[in-house]
Every structure is written in C-alpha cells, then in structure tokens.
Amino acid sequence: MATEPSRVNSRSLRVTPSWVEKVKRALPRNGFARQTDLAFELGLATDTVRKFLNGKPVNCDNFFEICRRLALEPQEITIELNGGLELTKEQNLAKSGEVKRQEAIFNLTQPPAEAEFLAAELYVERPPIEANCHEAILQPGALIRIKAPKQMGKTWLMDQILRDAAREGYKTVPLNLLRADHSVIAHLDKFLRWFCARVSRQLCLPNRLADAWDEDLGSNDNCMSYFEEYLLRELDTPLVLGLDNVDQVFPYHTVAQDFFGLLRACHEAGNRGEIWQNLRLVVAHSTEVYIPLNVNQSPFNVGLPIELPEFSPQQIQNLATKHGLDCNEVQLEKLREMIGGHPYLVQQAFTCMRDDPDTKLEEILKTAPTEAGLYQNHLREHLIALQQDAKLAVAMKKIVDALSPVRVEVEEAFKLESMGLVHKQGNEMMPSCLLYRLYFSDRLEVSQ
Fold first, then answer.
1. Lowest-pLDDT range, 76-90, 160-174, 334-348, 415-429?
2. Residue partners of 432: CB distance under 8 A and separation at least 6
3. CA separation for the pair 247, 244 (Å, rounded)
4. What pTM was computed for the model?
5. Cβ distance 12 to 81 under 8 Å?
6. What is the CATH number of domain 377-443?
7. Which CATH class for the 123-307 domain?
8. How far apart are alpha carbons 211 and 323 in whole angstroms?
9. Where are the domains of the chain?
C-alpha cells in the first residue's frame, strides 16, 4: 500500500528518518554539548533545534541555518516538499526518478533571489564591508578572502555575499571544509576528488570524476580540468564558490601548498580565459596563514581582503532591535563593558532575553564570568583548549593577570588572537573583553 504523504507547511523541511541519528551526532562533533548551545549561537528557539534533530518540520530558512552550522548538506538529509506534501523516497522514485528527485531538492534548497538563509533577518551590516564585497563579487574572476577570529561572523558575511550573488542570478555553492575527514584532507588527490565531487553534487550535476581524472596528470591539473571542461561549461551564469573554514587544511602543509596554489591559479586564470572569469571565490579562515607559501602561489595576498571588526554601539543597538528588545543606552553600555562588541556573545545575550522575557540583562551580566552564567559553555570550551596547550595557557594567564598590555611569543599571540581571546596593541596583547579577564584570571591555572 502506498504511504500517505503528511501535510506540512510549504516553507518547511524536515530531516529524513534515515538521517536523524547521524544529524544528532553532528551536534557534539561541531562543539555543542547541548541543543540549547546551538540554539543560543544561531539565535533560534530551542524548540526549533529540537524539532530539527528529531526529524520534525522546521521553517525553511532555519533548516538551512542549522545545516550550515552543523556542516550538513541540506539536499542530502532533507525530504522533498511538493506543494505542502512530504513525499517518500519510493514515491519520488516513482514520480520522476532519483536524478529528478535530487534536482527538485536542490532547487528547493538553493534559495531564489528573494529567499533568505542563515538568519538573514538578524544580519547586521558593518559598512562599508558589505558594499565592497557586493561590488567585488560582480567582477570577473573575483576573490574575496575573509579573516576574523572564531565566532566573529565570517560565515554570516559569506552567506550575505552568496545571497547577493543569487539575486544577480549567479549559481552559489557554499562548501564547509569541516565536512572533510582527516583521511581525505591528508592526501591531495583524495581531497581534490572530494572537492570536485562536493561541488558537482551541490550543482546537481552528475559526478564524472571516473572519466575525467587522468592518472598521468597531477591532481591540481585534473581538478582545474574538471572545472574548466565540465562544471563551468555546464553553467550559463557565473559560479560563486564559498569556501568556509579553510583553516582545516593548514596543518597538512604539503596538501595546503598545492591546494592554495590551485586557488591562486584559478583566480589568475580569470585574467586570461573567459570560462574562468565565471568562477568567483570567497575564502574564510580564522587563523593566521602560518604555512610557508610562495608569494606567487598564495591566494592570501591577492583579491579583496576583509577583516571583520567587532560590533559598534550602533550595530549592537540594531541587533537588539532585530531581536525585538527595547534596551536603553545605559544597559547596552554595560553589556559592552563586559563583552565588548563580540557578535556571538552579544547575540547570545539578546537571544536569551528574547526567548525568556523574565531574564534581565543585569542578571546575565552578574553571572557572565562564572560557571553558572550564560557563557559557561563558551568559556569552558576555551578553557579546555588552553589547558591542552601549556605554552598557550601560560601566555593567556600572563595577559589576563597584567594590568596593561604585555608581550608574548609570536606563535602564542597569533593563536590567542585567532581564538578571539585577545586584542593586539602594537606588539603587545590584552584581553579582548572584561569577560575573558575575569573568567581566566580565576579559572586558568598554570604550572610555575
């Protein structure tokens, strides 16, 4: 007997039952101990995250947002919705075959020009960054490289760029390198085949690697040929490829040199060949580029560089308004005194106040630097990371205990800055906010 399709909102998606357990495992794998932690980070209700993880219908935009943060591909894990009906896999196959099913899901999960994804309604602009990125992505062979500490909004900005590109009629492919396993990244040929396969899948094009990969050619040559002779020729519009968390490749020095050399070659090919002008790259990373790269083969010294600053007082006020909160200047100034303009920490506070109207900002600030406060998981995650690196812990302890900026070793300074824990003042470092000074001066212990 045919399964009766169940009614859902036409703007909703849900995780297919066969993927529910795998999706739940993605939570701790991406650093979230609890569902509430993910909800706080994304500015969503905990119930929304709970529904997602249990295969219940979730608003389309929220579905994309959660998938992005958990490094999940929407078109892999969702059930196609057709005019408000959920269709089983068997019904999809009977209706139009597996390829058409994938195309239908892809068309749904690739937002049209007016669609919003990754909490676009909460996005706060940091002028002139967005305007500069919009102008840059329209240029043939564009390369935008976004660098900022963790949780400063790199993915948020990348999604904004991809959304703008979609409005221009461009194809967009977000690719989070957190999805690549160690066994994949560690070997160049396997990594580039994975890279090509992921882009093919997101463009809903057949995987032709078996026919296109020539063992007599190098891995980089094969990858460029796959794009030039297949992927780019199949499209009638420019392709914007967003590469998030490229830091994942940095520890694999040999692979990194070849992969980033490949990105530079693709960018420079846009100056010579019309087909390559249609490839636009957006690259995001947190850490300093500490790997040795030939200056003529590095993508990190060309294109448009973007460094994300903290939120200004006005931008914090804008975010409060977007959360439906009526905060006065005195309250917001006290918030800034504790956490600065750190986008993630600010959003956590506003999400908590929005979802629980009885919670007052004064209560959040009182317990903020403690194990009982709103930021307990965020702080504990950093504490564990510091405890696993003795030199890093000593450097951080020196910084938080000092009454003025101090100098630490260059490598530790880079790492702490990429974690967002410190700010640079000339050649010296200081805690990036009072929250970190209070918490780590109390909780961080180092051997003398």
1. 76-90
2. 340, 342, 420, 421, 422, 423
3. 8
4. 0.76
5. yes
6. 1.10.10.10
7. alpha beta
8. 51
9. 12-109, 123-307, 313-367, 377-443
